[in-house]
Design goal:
The protein has about 210 residues and is α+β, with helices and mostly antiparallel strands. It contains two helices and eleven strands.
């Protein structure tokens, strides 16, 4: 009887799993390659994420890194002063009706000569003064008035309680026939209004 040929033994399945070959390379080499690829991908992802965050931060601050959005800054913080002391106040303040008020509390007397008594009193009130005391001849119906003098004079520094006298004349007629009545030494004196002697001239004292 012929002997049975011995079976060929296959490749051994024993040994360390890391030393087994998978294709042309051992398992441990493939594991190192996979770990290296994973590490490189992780570093790339982290770098890309950091770059995106930096770009968004720069865009939100007006394009300049390290600055604050101006819409978040209160407006009063943006005020800048070149001097450490506030600016000096003006010596006078212009008010309505031609008067001026000084910073010391006094008022510069407005000029009301040539105005009617109604206009003059309105100007005094508008300047913060009393309406004044009127002094002049009796005003008949239909007569106009014109301020001939004032006390205190225009430009004088006065207070709101300073007594004011407004001297006025009365006007009658019109054109070349217009006359003006003035008080002279306590008595009414009527004169003819001419180009050389216009209404509102101070009374002539004889």
């Amino acid at each position: 009887m012929s002997e049975t040929a011995p079976e060929k033994s296959g490749p051994s399945s024993g040994g360390n799993v890391f030393t087994r070959k998978l294709g042309p390379l051992p398992m441990w080499v493939w594991m190192i390659i996979a770990l290296t690829v994973a590490l490189v991908y992780h570093m790339y992802s982290a770098s890309k994420k950091s770059s995106s965050s930096s770009t968004a931060s720069t865009s939100g601050t007006g394009g300049t890194a390290g600055t604050t959005d101006q819409s978040l800054v209160p407006q009063f913080v943006n005020q800048t002063y070149t001097n450490s002391t506030p600016p000096a106040m003006p010596s006078t303040i212009t008010i309505q009706n031609g008067g001026t008020q000084s910073t010391g509390g006094t008022i510069n007397m407005p000029n009301v000569v040539g105005q009617s008594t109604t206009q003059a009193q309105a100007a005094l009130k508008g300047a913060g003064l009393s309406s004044g005391t009127l002094s002049g001849p009796k005003v008949a119906k239909g007569q106009a008035t014109v301020v001939a003098f004032q006390n205190p004079k225009a430009g004088a520094a006065v207070s709101p309680t300073t007594p004011i006298t407004i001297g006025y004349d009365t006007l009658s007629g019109s054109g070349k026939s217009q006359t003006e009545t003035q008080m002279v030494n306590g008595k009414p004196v009527t004169k003819k209004v001419t180009a050389s002697n216009p209404p509102g001239n101070p009374p002539s004292v004889s």
